[in-house]
Description:
- By secondary structure, the chain is of the alpha+beta class.
- The protein has helices at 7-18, 21-26, 57-73; strands at 29-32, 38-42, 78-89, 98-107, 111-120, 125-139.
- It has a single domain, classed as Hotdog Thioesterase (Thiol Ester Dehydrase, Chain A, Roll), CATH 3.10.129.
- The chain has three helices and six strands, in the order H-H-E-E-H-E-E-E-E.
- A hairpin with a 5-residue loop joins strand 1 and strand 2 (38-42).
Amino acid sequence: MSWEPDDAHLERLVDLFYRSTISKSFGLKISFDEQQRAVFDLPYTGRFDHFLDDVHGGTIATLIDNAGWFTAAARYPTWIVSVEFSVRLHERAGRQDLRAVGEIVRAGKSFTSTTMEVRNADGLLVATGAGTFSVTSAPHPA
Length: 142
């Protein structure tokens, strides 16, 4: 690909995320690291615990999905759509803050694939995931 993302593109993606209801509902924070990987932080509040008083797997899946999608979206000037994603839960979250990070496996013209991981504040690997995203010709929303 000849197009390269710049800071303005990443800032647009951050703005799109913060305008979403999911960012407000979950209290998620997004940033991009120096390798342009999406980083999502979820402060532990207990609002998304299951009946055994730890973070519900659906909340962790939300972190995985967002980390993969935004990492992929950073690579393209046009909209991307999710084709599939998977989640593997490895450990309890431990009632701690969580951080999800995405990583590009392969960025092609039509599809991109990512891996994602979620760790708790102690650094314990809580979950991993993988995603595939289709590249469209639609521009990003304004």
